[in-house]
């Protein structure tokens, strides 16, 4: 069984109109320094985003979101950022900014498998909640 480790995470938010401060959660970044792990998952619900701003720049937003997992992976594909350490890349990704792609404050926890924690955080923080089944629907 893997040894529990400390991890940090932040929620990736899309803020289509920064002046309004409204946002849609679109992903999660998880870093575990002990395991040298930095991972991100991105799932933008474009219909929710367009409900906030029908004129949102979807092409630009998609491109910016797609860069996050590439930066997490590091290496040449991430450009100069890919040469930074896992910790440095995480801090660069979660640095406060006033742009359409922002992150939540960083939170800390403990887990055995950062990849599984990434999946759990995506279900809890990004994906829409599953519709509750009423007792009448459960029996059909």
Explained architecture:
The protein has 140 residues and is of the alpha+beta class. The chain has one domain. It is built from 5 helices and 5 strands; from the N terminus they run βββαααββαα. Strands 1, 2, 3, 4 and 5 form a 5-stranded antiparallel sheet that branches. The longest helix has 16 residues. The protein is globular, with a radius of gyration of 17 Å. The N and C termini lie far apart (41 Å). The model has no long low-confidence stretch (mean pLDDT 92).
Describe the structure concisely.
With 140 residues, the protein is α+β, with helices and mostly antiparallel strands.
Topology record:
Blueprint (H helix, E strand, L loop, with lengths): L4 E10 L9 E9 L4 E6 L3 H7 L5 H16 L12 H9 L6 E3 L3 E5 L2 H13 L8 H4 L2
Antiparallel strand pairs: 1-2, 1-4, 1-5, 2-3
